[in-house]
Amino acid sequence: MFSTDLAKDVARKIPRLTTVPEKPNFIRDPDGQVMVLPGNLHEVCVNLRDNPQYLFDLPLQMTAVDYWKENIFELVYCLYSTKLRQGLVLKTQVPRSGPEIDSVSDVWPGMNWQEREVYDLFGITFKSHPYLKRILMWEGFPGYPLRKDYVHLTDRYDSGLEIGTPGLDEKGIPIPPK
Amino acid sequence: MNYLEGLAQKEMLRAQSWRRSAVWLAGLILLGIAGASLVGELEPKLSGMAKFLQDISIQKGWPVWIPAAFFIFIPPAVLLGIMMGLPMFVVWWERKVAAHTQVRLGPMEVGGWHGWAQVMADGIKLFLKEIIEPDGIDKWVFRLAPFVVFIPAYLSFAPLPFGKGLVVLNLDTGVLFLMAVSGLSTVGILMAGWGSANKYSLLGGLRGAAQVVSYEIPRFLSCVPVVMWVGSLSLTRISAAQSGFLWGWLPRWFIFYPVVGQISFAIYLITTIAETNRVPFDVPEAESELVCGFHTEYGGMMFAFFFLAEYSYVFAGSLLGAVLFLGGGAPLFSFLGFIPSWAWLLGKTFLLVFVFLLARWTLPRLRVDRIMDLCWKVFLEWTFVVILAMGFVILWRVK
Amino acid sequence: MTSPIFPSNPPKIDGGASLSTGPVFETKIEQVEEHEMLLNLGPQHPSTHGVLRVVLKLDGEIITDAVPDVGYLHRGVEKLSEHRTYPMNIVLSDRNDYLGAMTNNWAFCLAVEKLLKVEIPPRAEYIRVIVGELNRVASHMVFYGTYGIDLGAFTPFLHSFGRDREEILDLFEEISGARITYNYIRVGGIMLDAPDGWIGRVQAFLERMKPRLVEYDKLLTFNPIFKDRNIGIGKLSAEKAVAYGFTGPNLRASGPTCDLRKDHPYSVYKDFQYDVALGIGGGDCYDRFLVRRQEISESLKIVEQACKKIPEGPVMGKVAKVYRPPAGEVYAQVEAPRGWLGSYLVSDGTDTPYRYHIRAPSFINLQALGEMVKGWKVADVVAILGSLDFVLGEVDR
């Protein structure tokens, strides 16, 4: 579904896209991925969707990874073309302090809730998103749970039963990564 | 038990359930006949007792209202009481029919044989339950609604003949009385929907009112051909006019009347299913959308009234259908004439009730605007056609 | 140390600010005109298939706006998975799409196997296909039954869910020990080989299903009232469906023939002959129903072929007891009953994942609800919700 040749082809033909640099001792599967700077994301996405050679019309998924040590959030967009039956992985990086990026929910409406989920769980703001509110956690929830340095504050929904599960210390607070 | 044994047992249970359904069907018929025979035997005894009382009062010089009171009140009360007990039986039967279409067994425990006492146990349970009134209801509207729905159901049993000469109130305008009285329940549905402080109930109540009021028209108009044919609105006279055999073998039931009889019977049956809010027309209490529709907020005895009212209407509607279209007491074959008229009438009524029950457990629900379309664009037109045809036949006969 | 249950005085964060007093149920609908009514198809409802809240703005019976509100079943699976080893994560993954747990396990295991580069023996692949397709049949039977109930037909539920699906669950209980959360497909193969005669019992089940499918069609598929309730309702054009990220039966009902098992075959799907079910009328509820009904037949065909072709042999590849996949990221997908279930896995070389994201098809399919429902009546909302066939466990994770 994803192929390296396609990724290289796309990186060559579409402006402002590069292939993802190799990382030592880090397997990338699919091997072919393309990278874009956060400022150019919206333009590149419109291009990828409308370009008759590629026609990436299905927004497969969108997620974020918190690289705590490198101090960045990496956003991963997987796209698929139903007409040409090929897929592409698009990546972009935003700094961990003040993460902000353009929303692509006007390019593909299917990215709407996925962006809300990333905002809810990571705190990455999407500019010009039609309705950027928390979707899975409740409004007013303090903090962004999927960040590596998230510390859970005891609220009225804690019962004390979760102490003893892996990853939590004896007070029930998640152990932050080293 | 391992998997194969479990499978074998399941197959056995499935085979047994066919035998069981045959057994309970036979038991049901026997029970119906036994119950009706009780009433049938009571009637001559009751009028005999009334005459005896009259003679004694003349002898002993009692005031004239004592035997009169007995003669007027007691036999109808007995009849009415038994006729109100039969809808409970219909509830049990519905649960059994539902279970067997759904590959399961239904009530089996309460009372021993196939759970015949289940309905009575449920009635006792409902009687003892707490009635919870939500906050913000319109108090008296909420509390009166179950009665407004139930009392017309009770009243509608009055002009219905139970057999030859077994009628509580021998009205000359029986059909008209029935149609008018069942329309009163609509007010109760609206009261229930409005009085519960609940948007779902309101939706259910409004849908219910629209549907019931609309379907009364084709229902009444489908009874008109029979009335035209017999020339009277009285139910006992309609029932009597359908006795006898045409050409020696075809019973004079209105359903066998060419074309007109069949169409008007079909329209009557479907519109009665709609009037009683049963699937496929159960939008007022559409379970999966509106939880319980207009009676969501009712519990305990108030819910029991709605429940009993619905099944009373089903039974009364079937009884009316049997009287108007299926001969009402007249036998199917002349050699079966020894079976008393109330047994025939009960059998025909339960046949129609069975059609009601089967329809509920097989068909999905129609959407509310499609139901209205069906009423105003299909049934109404066909009732006009049928009345017109009947009119022409009568004119031709008169010539 | 015991923490208080439901503490009445929430602790203060640094800086003196206190926690919020509780959840705030905001949605997008703020303006309600005078003739309109706001109705909450609330979290507790017989037809919302779980804890889903849809806020409807009604004008009489017609819907002018609809906003779904999810998150009532959010259990933080992605956060939990970062603190659990890989075998523990398979147990967690069962509970996402609890009606199709085998495919959840499969999606996770495919991702880890890509990183570990482990060879899966052919018998394990065949059994994976058999249980995966049987799980698809079971899930579609639940859809069939519950869709009937949503529309008022109470009987098909007991035929499909109460009788036929129970037989599938009995088969699954024999092979894995559980009825719903199987934890059966493991990294490298499957947990245990099928017991003696299991394949024979599967084939006997297939024989018993043939007349029952005819019964299903008589009850619902060709029922005129059912067709009246479904044809033309909730149409979603192919372009919109693709733009919303629809996959699986919902997408195939609207037009495009995208089936992961045919276009990008994984496991041993190349060896089987089957058709891809497509919609006929442009993406209305009846199409979605027909596609799933057809998929039951096609999956039974696949199971039949797999039962004939299954080889003997081991069922587990060479995998260490505690496996530490090399550092890297991987994206793997399976064709789950609800769509394309994908796992995006980032590993850092330890025995717990660094990041595990589940591409949940139900979550992405549910976005289109607001648009699909506008202009239809309240009764149609239930039909459209049912025809989308989502599972809240997957939507909220």
Task: Describe the 3D structure.
The complex is a heterotrimer of chains A (178), B (399) and C (397). Chain A is α/β, with parallel strands linked by helices and 178 residues long. The mean pLDDT of chain A is 83. Chain A folds into two domains: 4-127, Beta Polymerase, domain 2 (2-Layer Sandwich); 148-178, no CATH class. Chain A has a five-stranded mixed beta sheet with strand order 1-3-6-5-4, with helices on one face. A two-stranded parallel ribbon of chain A has the order 7-8. Helices cover 17% and strands 24% of the residues of chain A. Chain B is mainly α and 399 residues long. Chain B has two domains: 3-118; 129-398, no CATH class. Chain B is built from 13 helices and four strands. In chain B, the strands form two sheets. Chain B has a two-stranded antiparallel sheet with strand order 1-2. Chain B has a two-stranded antiparallel sheet with strand order 3-4. In chain B, strand 3 (245-246) and strand 4 (250-251) form a beta hairpin. With 397 residues, chain C is an alpha+beta fold. Chain C has one domain (77-366): Cytochrome-c3 Hydrogenase, chain B. Chain C is 45% helix and 12% strand. Chain C is built from 15 helices and eight strands. In chain C, the strands form three sheets. Chain C has a three-stranded antiparallel beta sheet. A three-stranded antiparallel beta sheet of chain C has the order 6-7-8. In chain C, strands 4-5 form a two-stranded antiparallel ribbon. In chain C, helix 4 (122-150) runs antiparallel to helix 5 and helix 11 (285-309) packs parallel to helix 14 (378-388). The radius of gyration of chain C is 22 Å and the shape is globular. Chains in contact: A-C, B-C.
Specify the CATH architecture of chain C: Orthogonal Bundle
Q: Roughly what is the average pLDDT of chain C, rounded to an integer?
A: 85
Low-confidence stretches of chain C: 1-25
> Would you identify the CATH architecture of the largest domain in chain A?
2-Layer Sandwich
Low-confidence stretches of chain A: none
User: How much strand of chain A?
Assistant: 15-25%
In the CATH scheme, what's the topology name of the largest domain in chain A?
A: Beta Polymerase, domain 2
| Gyration radius of chain A, rounded | 18 Å
